[in-house]
What does this fold into?
Amino acid sequence: MKLYPINAGNFKLDGGAMFGVVPKTIWQKTNPADSNNMIELTTRCLLIEDANRLILIDNGMGNKQSQKFFGYYHLWGDFSLDKSLKTHGFHRDDITDVFLTHLHFDHCGGSVQFNADKTGYEPAFKNAHFWTNKNHWLWATEPNKREKASFLKENIIPLKASGQLKFLPIPENDILENSALGFDVVFVDGHTEKQMIPIITYQNKTIAFMADLLPTVGHIPIPYVMGYDTRPLLTLNEKEKFLNIAANKNYYLFLEHDCQHEIITVKNTDKGVQLNKTYQTNDIFN
It folds into this structure.
């Protein structure tokens, strides 16, 4: 097995929305804001090369939305999914599976592209299966008013129409061991219904792709929960449980949205779980 970080692009979001009830005087110490209160974020995806499978976890915003839409998110930097794949010697047509932690646009927008004459949409990975779960699919296709702006139909409906959509089963204890993709999956419900957190065993290490359960290092303190989360108190409990396990078992936490910190470990202290060490992906994916 080989692992590769894939940068699908950088963007900005309002710092207050990213940290909920936490005061700016506190969160700006780890996530400094610009004059418009926006903080820098990234869409760091993960590519898994395992035997004859090439599995991509999440794929960023894509490029099919309008200039007005992208204007809200202040794209910056010269990164793209295709450039990042090419850096590692791959093309999107090589991808066999696309695992979607959840269907918010900044995690799945790259799944779908315009067709050749731009009259409609088609899967952006023509040879891949797209993996989600039934509960989250229903949540995304019949969205509540609070999340409706995050679930864009053009990112979702074409996947079902293509026949390439697959569902992972949801176990009773919300931990799917040895999934069809070869890794374990933890299901969490605080951010959105049945978000999926992949847990990958790699060279005697455990790599957890944290998605929106832990967007940045600044979100390690248990009460630091995003304003975007639909069930913040549930997020609080899920994050506390997961981070305690991560500290006890020395998980390597792969951060999808943190521009500065790619992989971290955490430790238990008298003041709760705190940052232990930070790593570049090259330190771990050797």
About this structure: The mean pLDDT is 97. Residues 232-249 form the longest helix (18 residues). DSSP finds nine helices and 15 strands in the chain. The first strand starts at residue 2 and ends at 14.
